[in-house]
Design a protein that fits this description.
This protein is mainly alpha-helical. The chain has 2 domains: 145 residues, no CATH class; 47 residues. 73% of the residues lie in helices and 0% in strands. α8 packs across α9. The radius of gyration is 23 Å and the shape is globular.
Length: 227
């Protein structure tokens, strides 16, 4: 809640400044190669939105759990809006062909921003602020949930696991030897998050249905025995 307004203001400020180099023709032709190619890109982009599975834990701490669905929809909709605006501006400024060759297109977009004679001429520092705050917020939430989950599994205070996880995270972080391996590790983490957010809830739902049926049968048998 504290960082969100800061991230929003800085991010959209950077995007607005980037519009001085925006060319609408760079976005054309829209769907020029058909909608099928758009669907192929879903596999690469769906991992970006992984993280909403945290709500499966946060619901237990909500004062009004009934609003969990609305919270998830709003929380997911805001990043979708951000990514859509960023994608449009980046492609409109850098063109599709150039974006394909860049590792971090948004960071490259910041280099195009010029505001000569202003109080600040180098906007990379603002982009770094946005990036650091976003990463910090994501890391803290994930680290807390992991520590809490491990603590509940072994019935121990979760604060102990906040320290235990730190060296593990560090070791995993230094395993990749180059940028390609970093991206592969990120994809692996994304697929694990996708499994946790999609497959696990389905399995739990099936288990609940089975247990409900078993409970109903048990109640019916008890009623029959009483009669």
């Amino acid at each position: 809640e504290l960082y969100f307004p800061i991230i929003t203001i800085l991010l959209f400020g950077i995007m607005l400044l980037g519009f001085q180099h925006f060319e609408p023709d760079n976005l054309r032709p829209i769907l020029g190669k058909g909608f099928g190619n758009v669907l192929k890109g879903v596999q690469a982009t769906v991992l970006v939105y992984i993280g909403f599975e945290i709500m499966m834990t946060l619901i237990a701490f909500m004062k009004e759990p009934g609003k969990a669905v609305k919270a998830v929809m709003v929380g997911t909709g805001i990043p979708i809006l951000f990514y859509t605006v960023i994608s449009i501006v980046v492609i409109g400024v850098l063109t599709v062909d150039e974006v394909k060759t860049l590792t971090w297109p948004t960071a490259s977009l910041v280099n195009y921003i010029e505001y000569s004679g202003g109080f600040v001429e180098n906007f990379q520092v603002f982009f770094l602020i946005v990036w650091i705050l976003a990463i910090y917020s994501t890391f803290v939430a994930s680290h807390y949930m992991a520590s809490l989950g491990m603590g509940q599994i072994v019935s121990k205070d979760f604060s102990v696991f906040t320290y235990i996880l730190n060296p593990i995270i560090y070791i995993v972080a230094i395993v990749p030897q180059n940028l390609d391996e970093v991206f592969k590790l990120g994809d692996l983490a994304g697929y694990m998050g996708l499994f946790a957010s999609v497959i696990v809830p389905i399995l739990l739902f099936v288990i609940v249905l089975i247990r409900k049926k078993g409970y109903k049968r048990k109640v019916l048998k008890n009623d029959e025995n009483k009669t």
